[in-house]
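[[Encoded backbone]]
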Amino acid sequence: MPDPNLVSDQSADQPEVVNLARVDAGAVTAEMVRMHQSTAETITSDDVEMNVAAAGMVDAQTLSAHKSLIGGVDAENAEMVNSMVGGVRATMVNAQGYIGAVAGETVTVEGARVGVTAAREVRGEKIESVILLAGRVEGEVHTVVDTRGAIIAGLVGGLFAGLIVLVGRIAFRRD
């Protein structure tokens, strides 16, 4: 039976720095992960640097990705340059490249194309987003649906659906 007074220290088993170059890895856990021309399924680290690399999921305090492909990011600070990312959730985001969806406190996009952007503050020279939901925006915005447009589309869609239901009930009412 294990001694209840002993405390397990998993950080002793965790390496401080992992350098990956031209390798494929499964789950990578370390205080700092550096990747170059490598792939990993999941990365859990305080600090992640990716250069021409790919990862399924990155959970980090700080992420720096250059010419990389990432499925999902959960980070405090994320900087992605010329990268493709499925989804990002971070407090501070700096992005160049292609992002499916981004959610954060402050999002800075420079030459990035984003599907859905949701943030308290969005900045950039040229902000391109299909849907943009933000409290404050600084920069030139190119969107298909902005916050006002999303509200109007929701109201019109709800009104239209309500009318269809009402007409259907009247038309198919049994006497």
Notes: The chain has one domain: 10-146. The first strand starts at residue 17 and ends at 21.
